[in-house]
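ESCALATION

Customer reports they have been waiting on this structure for their group meeting. Please prioritize. Original submission:
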Amino acid sequence: MRINKYIAHAGVASRRNAEELIKNGHVTINGTVVDNLATQVKASDRVEIDGSPIYNEEKVYYLLNKPRGVISSVSDEKGRKTVVDLLPEVRERIYPVGRLDWDTSGLLILTNDGDFTDKMIHPRNEIDKVYLARVKGIATKENLRPLTRGVMVDGRKTKPAHYHIVKVDKEKNRSVVELTIHEGRNHQVKKMFEEVGLLVDKLSRIRFGTLDLAGLRPGEFRKLSKKEISQLHNAAINNK
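Update from on-call: job pushed to the front of the queue and completed.
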């Protein structure tokens, strides 16, 4: 097995991040630093990252209803609560598939499967990510239409999105909009709404591919079924 794939299968990082670890000299096989991505790993080899051995684990997949005020990370240097802290009984080294902002709630997958992670987050696979946003201002077809063509965010145009106006409250000057995107850039949904003159004051991800949050309250989680995992894989393949 190639070294980058081995690291991804061990649940340490996605294959893309594993490649960066290898290129930057963090990986050794039997005590020797390797920087060639094509290096093969045998069952008897001892693989270490920065001196810590890694092993292939059984693949696990969890669905979490992330509350606001929790970091989408494995650890936090400031000591803030992370999404991994919400699953204390899980022994495998899981990490979030993509991320939700500290103040964004909703659906988040956690796994130790690097290949699965890469499939889910790569824009080319066009996995639907559906958000429910409460925004300041009155949402109309006219001001939301640019989102369906793509808007400039951090110097790059977003892929076309789909929207549905759920509610408009003219007295309080705010609206609720459902937005479907296929990307996952930093603060992307908030910045997309800003581009059309609407400021997000509450945001939640309510669907990811075929998954939703039915039966899960904030902070609760459950294992994904084999059928759900297969459906996500198939969605990524069929959307290529």
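Sent to customer with the following note: The chain has six helices and 15 strands.
Escalation resolved.
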